[in-house]
Design brief:
This protein is mostly beta strands. The chain is built from three helices and 24 strands. Helix content is 14%, strand content 38%. The longest helix has 21 residues, at 3-23.
Length: 340
C-alpha cells in the first residue's frame, strides 16, 4: 500500500471513528467525546484521550489510538477491548489440575464449550444446534461462573451447571450482532495491518532461557518479524526468554508475525511503554502457543489460526494475556485473560 493510499485509508478510518464517537457512550462534553479538549471534528483519536494529538508517522491516526482505529469500533471502544476472547469457530475452556481459565470480560464465538470456565458474558452466536455447552469435567473445584449466557438461537446445554444471572437464546440479543461484527473486524484488521509498511523488520527471533532481547520499535506503529520463539525456563534458569519492544511513549505497536509464534514456560513479551499493543499472526499456520506462566502485554490477533493457551498454578503466577482473536481458541488450566 503506497503512503498516499495508506494516509487516505487512515483518514477514512478516523472519520468513521468520529462518526461512532458521536453516538458512543462519552465521558466528555458534547462535541468532545473523550474529554481531551480537542473537538471530535478534528481529533485524531476521538475515542481516546490524547490532548497532545501525537502522530509520529503522520498518517492521520493518533499514536494513542492506532490499534483502536485499525480494529474498528466493533472490537475496541474508548480504549477497551469489547470481547476479550473471540473466535471464528470455537472457544474451549478446559479444566486442568483443578484450575480453569478465567476471562475478565466477554467471550464470543459461534460455539463455546466451557469445562469449569469463568467469564462475564458468553455469546455463542450459532443460530441452531448447540451454541454453548457447559460441563463440570473431572476434578473441578468449581463448576465455573458466567454472569450472562447469550446465543444466536442455538441451545445452551447444561446451563444449570454454572451460576448465571440471565440467559437469552432467542437470537435477537444485540450482543449476537456485536459478536459477529467483531469476528469480521478481526479478519479485516489483520489484513489491513499486514499491508502496512513496517518501520522495522526482523528475521527469526529466538530468545533462550533467562535471556532478554530488545528490539527497536521507535518511529511508527508497525514492526515486522518473521517468527518469534521464546524458550521455556529451565531448572538452571527459572525464567524463560523475554522479548522487549522498545517503543515511543504513548504509541501503540502492532507486530506482524509471519511464521511461528511460540511463548514458552515463564517467557514474556513486553513493551517499554504501555498501550494497546498487538501481535498480528498472519496466515493459517502454524498454531500459536503459550505455555504455563507465560506473560504477554500484547493481545494476539490471529483470525485464521488456532491459538492454544496453556496455564497451570504456581504461587501467584498465571498465564496472562489481555485479549485474543483467532479461528479457534483452546484454553486449559489457570489462564487470566484481560486481568489488569
Amino acid at each position: 500500500m503506497s503512503k498516499s493510499a495508506r494516509t487516505a485509508f487512515a483518514l477514512l478510518l478516523v472519520l468513521t471513528l468520529r462518526t461512532r464517537a458521536a453516538t458512543a457512550t462519552c465521558f466528555g462534553p458534547p462535541g468532545d467525546c473523550d474529554g481531551d479538549g480537542v473537538p471530535d471534528a478534528v481529533d485524531d483519536c476521538p475515542g481516546v484521550e490524547d490532548p497532545d494529538q501525537a502522530d509520529a508517522d503522520g498518517d492521520g491516526i493518533g499514536d494513542s489510538c492506532f490499534v483502536q482505529t485499525m480494529l474498528g469500533g466493533s472490537a475496541v471502544t474508548n480504549g477497551y477491548y469489547d470481547f476479550l476472547v473471540t473466535a471464528e469457530k470455537t472457544v474451549t475452556f478446559k479444566d486442568k489440575q483443578d484450575f480453569s481459565p478465567t476471562v475478565f470480560g466477554d467471550v464470543c464465538a459461534p460455539k463455546i464449550h466451557s469445562d469449569c470456565g469463568f467469564a462475564t458474558t458468553m455469546v455463542g452466536s450459532a443460530p441452531k444446534g448447540t451454541a454453548i455447552a457447559f460441563s463440570t469435567g473431572r476434578g473441578c473445584l468449581s463448576p465455573g461462573y458466567v454472569n450472562v449466557i447469550i446465543t444466536g438461537g442455538g441451545r445452551a446445554t447444561h446451563a444449570d451447571v454454572p451460576g448465571y444471572d440471565s440467559i437469552d437464546t432467542t437470537g435477537t440479543h444485540p450482543r449476537v450482532a456485536d459478536c459477529r461484527a467483531t469476528v469480521a473486524a478481526a479478519h479485516a484488521a489483520s489484513a489491513r495491518l499486514a499491508g502496512l509498511t513496517p518501520v522495522h523488520s526482523y528475521g527469526n527471533v529466538t530468545v533462550g532461557p533467562g535471556q532478554q532481547v530488545t528490539l527497536d520499535a521507535h518511529g511508527g506503529h508497525i514492526v515486522d518479524v518473521q517468527s518469534i520463539t521464546l524458550l521455556a525456563g529451565t531448572l538452571e534458569s527459572f525464567y524463560g526468554g523475554t522479548l522487549v519492544f522498545d517503543n515511543d511513549p504513548g504509541t501503540d505497536i502492532v507486530v506482524n508475525v509471519h511464521g511461528q509464534l511460540s511463548i514458552g514456560q515463564n517467557a514474556e513479551i513486553a513493551f517499554t511503554f504501555g498501550g494497546l499493543h498487538v501481535l498480528n499472526a498472519l496466515g493459517r499456520t502454524p498454531t500459536v502457543t503459550t505455555a504455563k506462566f507465560a506473560y504477554l502485554e500484547p493481545a494476539i490477533l490471529a483470525p485464521s489460526r488456532t491459538v492454544r493457551l496453556t496455564g497451570d498454578y504456581f504461587g501467584d503466577d498465571f498465564t496472562l494475556i489481555p485479549a485474543v482473536w483467532a479461528r479457534t481458541v483452546y484454553m486449559s488450566g489457570m489462564i487470566d485473560v484481560g486481568d489488569e
